[in-house]
């Protein structure tokens, strides 16, 4: 995923946010590491390489603001850490927000993303039956990844 600084600036302005180096760097780090689920401390370590005077508290405030503005997503895995990833960028006026789900290996702890959202029919059913409009959801599957299954099967 490659998103230009200009695109980030445009997104911040559209959300009514001031464009700052900190915000741009946090978004850039998350975009460059889009396959990782990063803690605020992970983001801090990478941002401070280019912006050494930044503090961890600034990262927390920036991530919280970007989360509130729906530019980043929060993920809570079972390791006790809150993690962040850059959001899926789409125009919600013309496209539905694309959800992705997480596959978590109970053996090695690896986390993979699964991008097919098969819950749209369920969300429609919920709304028809209850009147409740689902705006977002988070789904985690727990099991055994391919590598661990192969390792287990080869060990027998």
From TrEMBL:
Q: From what superkingdom does this record's organism come?
A: Bacteria
User: Which InterPro entries does this UniProt record tie to the protein?
Assistant: FUR, Fur_C, WH-like_DNA-bd_sf, WH_DNA-bd_sf
The UniProt entry, under Pfam families, shows: FUR (PF01475)
Q: Which SUPFAM superfamilies match?
A: Winged helix' DNA-binding domain
**Keywords of this protein's UniProt record, alphabetized?**
DNA-binding, Repressor, Transcription, Transcription regulation, Zinc
Similarity comment text for this entry? Belongs to the Fur family.
What is the protein name given in its UniProt record?
Answer: Transcriptional repressor
What species is this protein from?
Claveliimonas bilis
Q: What is the lineage of its organism?
A: Bacteria, Bacillati, Bacillota, Clostridia, Lachnospirales
């Amino acid at each position: 995923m490659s998103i230009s600084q200009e695109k980030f600036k445009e997104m911040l302005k559209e959300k009514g946010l001031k464009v700052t180096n900190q915000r741009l760097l946090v978004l850039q780090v998350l975009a460059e590491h889009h396959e990782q689920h990063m803690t605020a401390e992970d983001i801090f370590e990478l941002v401070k390489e280019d912006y050494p005077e930044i503090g961890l508290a600034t990262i927390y405030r920036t991530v919280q603001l970007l989360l509130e503005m729906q530019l980043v997503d929060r993920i809570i895995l079972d390791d006790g850490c809150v993690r962040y990833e850059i959001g899926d960028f789409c125009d919600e006026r013309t496209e539905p927000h694309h959800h992705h789900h997480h596959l978590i290996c109970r053996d090695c702890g690896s986390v993979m993303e699964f991008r097919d959202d098969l819950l749209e029919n369920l969300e429609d059913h919920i709304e028809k039956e209850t009147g409740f409009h689902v705006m977002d959801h988070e789904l985690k599957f727990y099991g055994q990844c391919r590598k661990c299954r192969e390792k287990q099967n080869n060990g027998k």
